Amino acid sequence: MTMIRVVLNIRAWLLLLLIMLMMLSSLSSSQAATGFPFAFMTIDAEKAAARKYDYIVVGGGTAGCPLAATLSTKYSVLLLERGGSPYGVPEIENADAFGKPLDETDNYTSIAQTFISEEGVSNARARVLGGGTAINAGFYSRAGSEYVRNVGWDEGLVEESYEWVEKQNAFKPYQLSPWSLAIRDGLLEAGVLPYNGYTLDHVDGTKISASTFDSKGKRHTAADLLRSANPDNIVVLLNATVSRILFNSPAQEAKPRASGVEFMDRHGRSYQAFLNETSSSSSSEVILTAGALGSPQLLLLSGIGPSEHLKEFNIPLVLDAPMVGQRVQDNPRASVNWLSHQFYTIQVVGILIASQNYIESLSTYVNGTLSFNKNNVYREVIFEKLAFPLSRGHLRLRTTDPRDNPSVRYNYYSNPLDLHRCMHGVRVIDKLLNSPSLHRFNANSTHDFNFTGQPLPKNMSDDAAVAQICRDTLNTIWHFHGGCEVGYVVNQKYQVNGVEGLRIVDASTFTNGPGTNPQATTMMLGRYVAMKILQGWSR
Length: 539
Fold this sequence. Notes:
By secondary structure, this protein is α/β, with parallel strands linked by helices. It starts with a helix and ends in a 5-residue tail after the last helix.
């Protein structure tokens, strides 16, 4: 009888264990299905704020995700993201839905948040875990070696950091689409030489590069890099908008030190999260990775910026820092476009030797289903991106609500050399459109260059008419940067000048953008700075 009871007890325990495993499996599946593939992702602000952290990272975007994941291998990290999860969202995950989040925006909850520059150019910033990598066109290409040397980065660690990102998030095209083949050959016929084949490197001429969309057309965002995090050391809190950085009251002659942040959840309830005071001073920091609008805006809201501007909003001054929000840039775009029933990802780019401008083609969603359908309508665009513009502007607060956009003016084409370089790019677009390869493609397909908007002038030798195209088709390519530049607001280690325990690691620190799509370099930078910190990078 005793033996029978033992067997029955064992069976009961095994049955209970099986039920528990099934419940855990069901919970895991439920989490994944609702866009929470990582156990450390949460929307529970109260729970996240109940403990202290070695690092608080503000902004779960292009730089924030790789930075937080890497730091978590040694330190406790809280990653705060004002948006939601990118997982299970067709508008984000499907390649041929590119552009839809950019068109469907609101003030406080949409995946992207529209802002309009003081010049009247419509732009967008991401509001989702993964940041701009969740809403962009997916083109992946590194910065040039000269750019890396000019910034002063450790070239060996830059290479390692790029490779770390690329093992997870960069995909070589399985094959070129008919349109990409036509663009490639057309660029070569238009004189954009030499042909460099497939390469991730920044090289003059025509090349094929990688994408963050895989062979099945599924997007991989910076959020995917969180798979490398130590799950026991990291909390990723979604729908958490940081309103200000908290500082300890400095002792006499000491610099203010960041001690935590104040944030609100999606219901507007306010919380505070604090740094771990028991950790060493060199490994207890708030790191802003909120992007080229969010990071300077948050400094201003926290009392770091031009004192006269802060007085306008009755913000207590922590540090008079006149260069916060200054020298901002956006790369202007001139383009031609038409409507089509075909969708093509960016696979090919032409980099002009003389101007370093980029000639590319992309498709954006107009209407239809969220997966490819022959009746869907897309906008096809051939454009030139003005790399390394000389024109600069400024960013200022519009309100003290952290959910609102700041005011920004980029002063597009205020430097006459920028307009001259744009004109050169427009003339290359004209040569591309009139190349034998694009003529053949047009004749052999249902493609038809019935332009919507302004066509190129018939007389391309007319400087005034070409310059007018640059002005009339002025648009953004969403690669804005600056406002917290190295050498002006932060030092070479990305530490904010004049305070302790605060860094900024994102495109707001760029003096110049890397030329091509900056997502590769910005993800690399997040990994790079985190590795430097792990190696003991301090003042």
